[in-house]
Automatic annotation (TrEMBL):
Superkingdom of the source species: Bacteria
Protein name: Aldose 1-epimerase
One Pfam family here: Aldose_epim
InterPro entries linked to this entry: Aldose_1/G6P_1-epimerase, Gal_mutarotase_sf_dom, GH-type_carb-bd
Annotated SUPFAM superfamilies: Galactose mutarotase-like
Organism: Paenibacillus mendelii
Amino acid sequence: MEVGDDKLGQFSAYEGTYQGEKAIWLTAGAYEAAILPEIGGNLIAFRDVEKGYRFLHEPTEEEMPSFKARPIIHGIPVLFPPNRYEDGKFPWNGKTYQFPVNEAERGNHIHGFVSDTPWEVEEFGRTDTGSYVTVALTVNEEHAVYAHLPHLFTLRLRYTLSADGLSQHVFVRNNGKDAMPCLLAFHTSVNAPFAADGSAKDYRVKLTIGQRWEMSERMLPTGKHQPLTADELQLQGEGVYPFFEEMDNHYTAVAQNGRNRMELTDTKLDITLVYDVGTSYKQWMIWNNFATEGFFCPEPQINLVNAPNIDLPAEEAGLFSLAPGEIWEEAARFYVK
């Protein structure tokens, strides 16, 4: 019993605050993490407090107002449906949903409806192997999201913190009586450097990318592919400096050794952060803040950008649906090696 008590002492889960906002905090040995249920269920922090590593791009106190207004480039925002849709139009099952055009300069809708929506905390706690929190968003006819995406569904996220890092389980269930689109991504924002005294020049990133999609001036795929540059081949292979040029690029995902992942290495410390996202995500978006050192976003996506408006087979575009009562789920993990 004493051994069990010692193990439990390594882990905790409790309600607190983060920059003045309600947060659920998790601890596991040297690791800590925080989620903001009232701001899109965003896992805003993942840290190694002993080594001084902050793996995710967190907002400063001064950045909190802009973060709350548009919580996209910090933590792990949920995009549902993800990325851009031409003229805000989303054709589905003989109907066309009209999403708000919130990227006026390009005439697109961008990033869906759940990243700034309050989620419900279902439970949090600890076990003899880690600490955990579960948050959910249930959309019915009265919910604000229903006005744009008229389907009944539940999104659920469970994060677990342990000696093996941070794991994420995502769950989508169709609660309605007709088929619904299941298009999802995470606008994950990773620090480079993540070590307190590190230099971005010492960092190299690898990603399981395949082909690069050609994009129009409106940042919508043309349906064609482009050859990879020498730097992109390094991204695909041995790793490359994350800020070698401005990136707002869209790629197919091609698993390696059965895994679909990003690896970010601090070559000076000889430590690698792995973001293993699971093989359900058939596309990657990579955005590096105009090649500005500090953070970049490796974004796993189920679907191709603008998928419902592109003349490609549904399987290639990642455009799929959930039948009434059907569930889709996937697991991802951050860990250090």
